[in-house]
């Protein structure tokens, strides 16, 4: 119903100056939003098809397409390469211990991991109510599991949950800031 793109925009926060990495970029709309917001970006997705689609979308819009095929559990970047890492509506990989360790590693001290993951549809129209019912069944609605906060803390992030109110929905995002310590936690 045209809302997904609006919900995805909740990943746009006040980033620290630097380069932003998007994990699981899909068809490239998040990359487009980040570039339009003036960010310098890289993106990583395991799907060759999504990589091609995202590159084409960015190039057709006049932006550079720094997009790689790969997995979040093994990031091909140097330590401290990014001021921010974002992911919108990711699958389970985002809470994988290897993903969290790798994300911590590539973030600069004080950099943030921003995850847009849950939406509560608040519109009152029949299509909105149907979509809300469907999102409840598929687990895409509700709230971020409380144990996520402890998981982020275990990997030396300082997490906060934020509600972003939109026209017909409320989106929950996690902003987890990398602690300024010298090494990641061994689980």
Labels describing this entry:
single chain, 187 residues, alpha/beta, Rossmann fold, seven-stranded mixed sheet
Task: Describe the structure in your own words.
The protein has 187 residues and is α/β, with parallel strands linked by helices. The protein has helices at residues 4-8, 29-36, 48-60, 97-106, 126-138, 147-154; strands at 19-23, 40-45, 67-69, 82-88, 107-121, 157-165, 169-178. The termini are far apart.
SSE order and pairing:
Elements: H1 4-8, E1 19-23, H2 29-36, E2 40-45, H3 48-60, E3 67-69, E4 82-88, H4 97-106, E5 107-121, H5 126-138, H6 147-154, E6 157-165, E7 169-178
Parallel strand pairs: 1-2, 1-4, 2-3, 4-5
Antiparallel strand pairs: 5-7, 6-7
Q: Ends: how far apart? A: 41 Å
User: Strand-and-helix sequence, N→C?
Assistant: HEHEHEEHEHHEE
Number of domains: 1
Q: What ranges have pLDDT less than 50 throughout 5 or more consecutive residues?
A: none
User: What name does CATH use for the topology?
Assistant: Rossmann fold
Short description:
The protein is globular, with a radius of gyration of 16 Å. It is 30% helix and 29% strand.
